[in-house]
Amino acid sequence: MKYIIGNHKMNLDYITLKGYLKALKKVAKNSDNKVGVCVPYVYLDLAKKVLKGSNVLYGAQNMYYKEAGAFTGEVSPKMLIDFNCDMVILGHSERRHIFNETNNEINNKVISALNNNLTPILCVGETLEERNNKQTKKVILAQLKQGLKNIELENAKKIIFAYEPVWAIGTGVSATALDAETICKYIKEQLNKLFSTEFNFVVLYGGSMSEKNVSELLNNPSIDGGLIGGASLTIEKFKPLINYKN
Ligand code: PGA
User: Fold this and answer.
1) Has this prediction a pTM greater than 0.85?
2) How far is CA 41 from the centre of its chain?
3) Separation between Cα atoms, residue 86 and residue 109, nearest integer Å
């Protein structure tokens, strides 16, 4: 069993998504994997209605950490729960780099999601410059340490981690299976060190995963699934990933 989670980002419209979700429900029914999709906030009601009674998990791509208040334009964990969301992506590289989210803010969001029984999908990953300067492990460790501040082991176990090298996102250039496996393994090791435990934390890979490389990437012991952008936008492209078998 692997996690196959789509991240739609700011894509699709109401009608297209409605058809997509209906088809997704059918395809996911016969899958061995845990299938999920993160849609724009305004379509969560649609996801709730169409995916009702299915085995497809769904959620949002961000949230604010406060539960309510004067925060114009923001969406709270309570609101996501209102739409029965299972999960929320936090600290995606586009949030970090386009919207300048800091590890500290992301940490607040992870804590808030956990307090509200939402599964956080905590994304970490290095930029191309950091990779070229051989800082990948250092950057990821800092993102993990700061993102997980004040979180206890029992709660940390509920988090889904996603290794998403920034240079691989939306570029068509995926990390090699060896690189992805190496870093996902590193993440698991560091989490075990941080929490002084021996637990098999869930770590996904994300960055240009597609029909072409899904088997190569997921046939690795430390890669527990994929967070998929571009290839999750149509059922035709997403189906081979949903149907992945070891
Ligand atoms: P991509 O996006 O699959 O289009 O590279 C992955 C992500 O950003 O989660």
Assistant:
1) yes
2) 15
3) 15
